[in-house]
Amino acid sequence: MTNRRGLAVVAIGGNSLIKDKDHQTVPDQYAAAHETCVHIAGMIEQGWDVAIGHGNGPQVGFILRRSELARHELHEVPLDFCGADTQGAIGYMLQQNLYNEFRRRGLNKQAVTVVTQVLVDRNDPAFQNPTKPIGSFMSREDALQRRETEGWNVVEDAGRGWRRVVASPLPQEVVERDAVKELLDRGFVVITVGGGGIPVIRDEQGHLVGTAAVIDKDYASSLLARSIGADLFLISTAVEKVALNYGQPNQRDIDVMTVAEAKRYMAEGHFQPGSMKPKIQAVIWFLEAGGKEALITNPENIERALAGETGTRIVP
């Protein structure tokens, strides 16, 4: 093992687990997780201490759909419990793949999953304006009935049918932060804030209560990186580099950009709300809070990006 390189938070996108609609089964997800874990293990072999955050959007959708289909026979699963279920299952996939990869490389390392709660403000405006579609499509009739009987917020989704929408509030605090930090300090690789963390609010007595929301995993990973004093924030996503004019004939890949440039490009509308925009915002928050650098690239290029050969590097 080389000398210690520093502390990194790696945020894995949902694409790292589900390649396409033909590869959604658990074995398919496990195989995809394996590929990403090989590259994270390479990073750890270089001397990085690593905490891993991950997305869970498709997996939560699967659990909800299964729950809906079994409604005539079994209780339905509340959204915060779906988040907890996916943290456990995806954590298991990642930690087993990492165990096997560490063993193959002769690394004396162990990965552990922390089921993580993330505090949100119960007065966050997002609760008044739910925007995150989850679960399966419904008829208008079913949707309006659910709104009536179960208090769901429902919207018509791009001509494809009606869906439930939930709030996506901003993360305020990683509840298990001290445990995560302690494990990292002792040399463990920690899988945490899965799916953005299980969203919880504080009631009048100061008790934590789960809430029906979905936290953006890049925002939660950024908060984690800030709160544990990470040196590097690495976002693993579907593209090798961030681009301006993405998907257009004049697309231009970015090798390095400063926070000021990132803000300017964001204001000019280069980054889409559902894809790159939250990643860039998450990086800006990290760097403005004292982080040293951030990287955005795809899983197979993690080691090359760390060596400065590819990826997009964002600096203060």
The total of beta strands comes to 17
Using only C-alpha atoms, the radius of gyration works out to 20 Å
What's the arrangement of strands in the largest beta sheet? 3-9-2-1-12-16-17-15
Low-pLDDT residue spans: none
Mean pLDDT across every amino acid position: 93
Topology as H/E string? Answer: EHEHHEEEHEEEHEEEHEEEEHHEHE
Work out the helix count: 9
From the spread of the alpha carbons, the general shape counts as: globular
**Strand residues, percent:** 15-25%
CATH topology-level name: Carbamate kinase
Per CATH, the architecture is 3-Layer(aba) Sandwich
Tally of distinct domains: 1
Return the structural class: alpha/beta
Q: What would you give as the CATH superfamily?
A: Acetylglutamate kinase-like
Distance between the termini: 30 Å
What is the C-level CATH assignment? Alpha Beta
Largest sheet: 8 strands, mixed
Residue share in helix:
25-40%
